[in-house]
Design a protein that fits this description.
Distance between the termini: 31 Å
Order of helices and strands: EHEEHHEHEEEEEEEEH
Largest sheet: 7 strands, mixed
């Protein structure tokens, strides 16, 4: 995939490409007109306009981040103020507390998540979301999804599935329990992240 040849003049959005559905994220971002770059090495983290942590298997991602020497460098980028979007396993990597089982994380979002909180593959599906910031009828595809059981101070709930928060944001970091990248065409959740990337690109040097 000719990732960095796609899209406009903004810096490419890095998509962590160690494991998971990173190709779908790239395709979704490119449909919205952004360039992308697969992040596999420390060098791939240079000069990015945003960063995506995809769905997949969070325990495998943790191991590969260590093996490839990316844990600390990736953490520095995540804390830099760059727009970040994480889905499913990516959200687990950012949660302050992880359960079922307990595992380490970057702890950048004040939320508690339960891995596979909505059940296994049999319970997966697409559900309409409740949201004041997304168009009516927006849906989310849940696949062995984590469940948010606590939202702390400073973290906004952007969408819910029933009473459960499923899309949250704190500052430049947005995270979803579901997979907007899997839906065809333009997606309002992806569009929200794209708008943040473009807004960030317009800031003066050193701005935040």
């Amino acid at each position: 995939m000719a990732s960095e040849a796609e899209g406009g003049a903004t810096l490419p959005v890095g998509v962590l490409a160690l494991q998971g559905d990173f190709v779908d994220h790239e395709a979704a971002l490119q449909r919205h007109g952004l360039r992308t770059r697969q992040v596999r090495t420390v060098a791939d983290l240079d000069s990015l306009g945003g960063l995506v942590l995809p769905g997949g298997e969070s325990t495998t991602m943790l191991k590969l981040l260590d093996v490839d020497g990316l844990w600390e460098p990736l953490g520095a980028v995540l804390r830099s103020g760059l727009p970040v979007f994480a889905t499913c396993a990516g959200m687990i990597l950012l949660a302050e507390q992880v359960e079922n089982p307990v595992q380490r994380s970057y702890a950048l979002l004040p939320i508690t998540v339960v891995r596979n909180g909505y059940g296994r593959q049999f319970h997966s599906g697409t559900f309409v979301l409740n949201s004041a910031v997304l168009p009516a009828g927006t849906s989310g595809t849940f696949i062995r999804a984590p469940r948010i059981t606590r939202v702390g101070i400073g973290c906004d709930v952007l969408a819910a599935r029933g009473a459960d928060p499923v899309l949250v944001q704190k500052g430049p970091i947005m995270a979803a329990c579901f997979h907007p990248e899997l839906q065809p065409g333009l997606n309002p959740v992806v569009a929200r992240f794209v708008a943040a990337v473009r807004k960030h690109a317009m800031l003066p040097a050193g701005g935040a």
